[in-house]
Structure formats: structure tokens, C-alpha cells
Amino acid sequence: MLGFQDVGLEWDEWACKTRAAAGQLTIRTDVAQYPVWPLVGKTTALIASPPCQAWSRAGKRLGLIDQPLVHQAVADLAQGRDTRARLLASCRDERSLLAAEPMRYLHALHAVGQPEWVAMEEVPDVLPLWRQYASVLRGWGFSVWAGVLNAADYGVPQTRRRAILLASRTRTAAPPPPTHAEVAEPQTLFGPGRSRWVSMAEALGWGATDRPVPTVCAGGGPGGGPEPFPSGSRKALTGARDRGTWKPQTGPAVLKSPAEGDGCGGREGRWGNPPAGAPTPAFTAGAHGWSWSLRSNNQTNATVRGADEPAGTLFFGHRANECVWVAEPAPGVAGGQRPVPESIRITAQEAGLLQTFPADYPWAGNKGQKFSQIGNAVPPRLAAHLLAPHLGKTLTPDDFTLAA
Asked: Rounded CA gap, 244 and 264, in Å?
């Protein structure tokens, strides 16, 4: 989209296969072992997004304990001293030290006056480390900006906050101007105001209360691989299928009430089966007095957002092991008047769209491997805004058709 070719260094087999299918050149390697000399004299820019698992709030966050060791590694590498092996032996999480790897590349490239610009991304708790990088890069003649940005401010239907570092030898580094705001802004003498944050419903092409006829998105099918994550306390659609209370729909989805004989009452509704030969419109929760929300995981502090809002941060892992659509009573409708549809796992395509990948993006691997790639990705729409100024591009909200 931005008109430049990158070469990716990536460890994960399935991420490499996805990039290959998308036409992106990738070297499958451990970035901590890959030699720097093949890149010297041939590199215009360095884009670094180290693994976040050691720092993420979805994990044990051992990176925060290891942070002094990572700072020491960055300081040493900036001076050309490789102390990684000694420091790694003291790390509580071996992935922590990967956040120092960009400095190994930057030091080698700086010796030949490269790169021209740098862009780096991580979870917000890594911002102090990015500020250390910024101090080193300024000493090497770069203009640098480091701070935390919200992806929703750039048209991503997700309030994903990330620590960003931008540096350049040729222009003043600064964050891109936001294109969206939590509340739409009116036009002024200086031009149109920012649009309202993009909602999940907009990104997925739904009405605010619609959810299409559910599809099995976790386990089950031939070649689909194992369940990507345990279902925890919530009922997955596959569980309803296994119990015989849900079958693939051949017509419109309807809810059966206790009076219709399925034995379900209160908040334990089930998907029913329509008459044979009936048409197949999308299921509209609003018709039954319910609206859809996305629950980010099965923990007690899970983020729950309505379809008319952006999603919370999407992540998939051993603790944040659920990302499901749940039905909530529509305004003015008493919760006990109607049975509730079961929780439905988000599909990989839906998750990709909420990250602003195209609907037909060629994700490789089984369902768990796809979810892992999607959760680890930088939203392309945010990335485009971050990189465009360094490539001489000017982007407007109308330039994006990624989710079309």
C-alpha cells in the first residue's frame, strides 16, 4: 500500500507462511542469532516490534522484573559491547532481552550512516526502554519521538494503546496527527473535525445489533486443528453443537423459548433450527431484544464492549484465552424476558478485520496459529500512519480500503 519493499526477520513458522502468501519477503530466523553484516550498507529503515509476551498484562509480566537487565543490554550494545549471554542467564523470562535486539542492529548500521529512519512498537510498559533508545539515537544525530498512541485515534476499531518510537536523520520525528476521536468533532474554520472512533459494527459491516448466522470457528472441521484455547467458564458454540443443541443453520436463526420444549429457561437460551427451505438472512439480535458485545477474555476484569464501540485490545494467549461475542439486553428490555444466545467465539476473519487486515488476508495455519498471529500483529492502518511520513506519503481517512 505504501509502495516499499521490506524484508522480515521472523521466527514463527506460520507467520512466515502467511507473509509468503501475502507476497512479503521473509527470512525465518532467530533475530538474536541472525548476523547483522548482510544488512550493512543495504538498509534504509529499521522497523522493530519485539515480542510483547514478557511485558504484556495478559502474561506474568516478568519483563518488568528483567527491565534493569534489558536496559543494561541496550547500553552495552550501544557501545558495541555484546553482554547478552551473561545478562540472559539472569533474566526471569528469556524473551525479555529480545527488546534489546534492535540496538544490536542499530549500532552496526550506524557505523555506515544508516538507517535513515526507525519505527518501533511495544506494549505501553516498554516506554521507558524506548526513551533510553531515544537518548542514544539523539546522540547519533537522529530526531526522535517516543510516546504512547491509541490505535482507535487512527481509524482502527480497537482501543489498542502501544508505546511507539519514531526516529529520523532527515526530518523532524513526530507522531502522525490523529484522524479519529472518541467523540466526533464539528467542522471549524480550520477544516473538518475528526471522525468518531470506528466501531466494531462499522468495521465488520453490521448494524449495531446484528450478528450474522454463527459459524464454527474453533476446532471440529477436517484440517482445522485443535481448539486454539480452552473454553473456560463460558459455553463455546462447539460445545452447543456437541450437546446437540445447535446444528448448522439452513435458514434464519431463531431462539427457542422454554415453552417450545427445549428445556432451557432464564439465561440459558439455545440456537433453534428454522423450517426447512426457509431463506437465510443474517440473525438480528435486536429482533429479540438483545444487542451484541465483544468480551476480550474469560477473566473477571475482561473488557466488554458493545458492537457500536471499538473493541478492547485483542490478544490471544494462555490466560486471555477467550474472545467471544455475548448478547446483552437492548436498552429498555428486561434481561429475564427472553433467553440469551450462547457466547460465540470470534472468528479469525472477524479478529483480522478488527486489526484492519483485509477480509481475504491469507492467514496460514490452524485456528490457534491464526489467532496468535492476529493478536501479535500491529494493526496495518496504524502502521501505515506511522510509516507514511518517512516515505513521503500523505494519508487521509479516505485512502484506506484495507477492510473492504
From this structure: 13
